[in-house]
Amino acid sequence: MRDGHVPLILRAIVMEIRPGQPREASPAFTERGRQLQAMLDQSERRGEPVPTLTELLELVLAPLYFYALFAEPLTETEAARLVDRLLDLVAHRQPSGPLVDGPASAPVAQQRPRR
User: Fold this and answer.
1) For 86-95, how does the pLDDT look when each residue is reduced to its tens digit (9 = 90+)?
2) Domain limits at 53?
3) How many domains does the chain have?
4) Is residue 2 part of a domain?
5) Any residues with CB less than 8 A from the CB of 26 and at least 6 apart, and which?
6) 14 within a domain of the structure (yes/no)
């Protein structure tokens, strides 16, 4: 983008946007969500406190992808800071539960942030 060229991935994303039309998750997003949920489920079976898939996506993955697409990728230290924030949130979670409605194992498309 520095030299005026828009990366192909950004063009593909923009071409997929259809204002006012319902959208389904892409196969890549669905598969990534399945992989991440499997990791969260393993942690939960070990008795570890775990975030929901939506919390993981919003607080860790989204910033990682955002910086990778629009700026310089985050360093390992910066990425670790995102994970630390997420784990801190989970460790200090109120008894009312996660930030999103639905069980941690619900597909990400079914989890909606509380308003």
Assistant:
1) 999 999 987 6
2) 24-113
3) 1
4) no
5) 16
6) no
